[in-house]
Design brief:
The protein is of the alpha+beta class and 178 residues long. The protein has six helices and eleven strands.
Length: 178
């Protein structure tokens, strides 16, 4: 039996999937449905783009894309709903090719540069990234070109030490207890 050394090449996969992301046409409708039908929430909603995300690239070039993001948990797994708003992005590409639905699995990394170097060594390139969205200008996400290999993209996530306050929480705290 041959041993597959992919996990050794990509040590950031050893901790497993921390996040499942789904592209949706309307974040507001989606969070309402997830809450009403499944009790998933509360959702913290942000608009990612400049100036919140300070540095963005798409296919190695500076980029200016925007999306609404809603974050919640289903057990220990973070669920991320993404509504693309404008600009060229892996989200717009996916919708054009496949429509809405599951887009990527997110894995947490402590050192983004080391994780990207591991991916590059394994022959997997970064397609899009964004950095500087944390309260202290930290935080970095990077999408790897894995869709043709495994059916979804992998997002590397170096979480910020602290987040900025969400634009909105759904349901509002007084509704969540009702």
């Amino acid at each position: 039996m041959q041993v597959d050394d992919t996990k050794r090449k990509l040590s950031f996969l050893n901790a497993g999937v921390a996040q499942v992301a789904i592209l949706v046409p309307d974040v507001d409708r989606a969070v309402e449905m997830y809450w009403t039908l499944f009790g998933i929430g509360p959702w913290h909603i942000y608009t990612y783009g400049k100036p919140l995300v300070q540095h963005m690239t798409y296919h190695g070039e500076p980029a200016d894309y925007r999306m609404r993001v809603a974050l919640s948990y289903l057990g220990p797994t973070r669920i991320e709903l993404i509504q693309p708003l404008e600009g060229d992005s892996v989200y717009a590409d996916h919708i054009a090719d496949h429509g809405y639905g599951v887009h990527h699995f997110g894995v947490l990394v402590e050192d983004m540069q080391a994780a990207l170097a591991e991916a590059q060594t394994a022959g997997i390139s970064m397609v899009m990234d964004g950095a500087g969205f944390g309260a202290d200008g930290d935080g970095h996400y990077a999408y790897l070109d894995t869709e043709d290999l495994i059916g979804v993209m992998i997002e590397l996530i170096e979480r910020p030490k602290g987040r900025v306050a969400p634009e909105q929480v759904y349901p509002a705290p007084e509704q969540a207890g009702a």
